[in-house]
Amino acid sequence: VGTKLVKLNKSGVYIRPTPAVGVKYVIKIDTKDYSTTLECIGEEFTDSENDVWCKVRTPKNGIGWVRSDLMKELN
Predict the structure, then answer these.
(1) Distances (CA, A) of 26 to 13, 50, 51, 60, 75
(2) What is the signed CA dihedral for 25, 26, 31, 34, rounded to 10 degrees?
(3) pLDDT confidence bin for 6, thresholds 50/70/90
(4) Which one of 17, 19, 61, 73 is CB 3.0 to 4.6 Å from 53, fit for a cystine?
């Protein structure tokens, strides 16, 4: 809870309304944006492909899900 995350994936990160790849994204963190931080709010979900999703709060106070392998913890 409260962990700050920054983008790791160079092709951009999609924040989705549910923890699933097939769901249309609600927010995209742009390819060149490495400054946006997301806050994990304490919920995780492992999908059928064994990808772990983290429920996040966006900078504009939105809520969504992001795959944890696309982000890294901010130290």
Answers:
(1) 11, 22, 19, 12, 27
(2) -130
(3) low
(4) 19
Q: What is the pLDDT of residues 12-57, one digit of tens each?
A: 788 899 999 888 988 887 767 666 777 888 889 999 999 899 998 8
Q: Which tokens sit at 22?
A: 């097939």
| Segment holding 55, helix H or strand E | strand 52-57
Q: What's the token pair of residue 43?
A: 């919920």
Q: Using alpha carbons only, how large is the chain's radius of gyration in Å?
A: 11
Stretch (H or E) spanning 63: strand 63-67
Q: In the sheet where 52-57 sits, what is the strand order?
A: 63-67, 52-57, 37-46, 4-7, 71-73
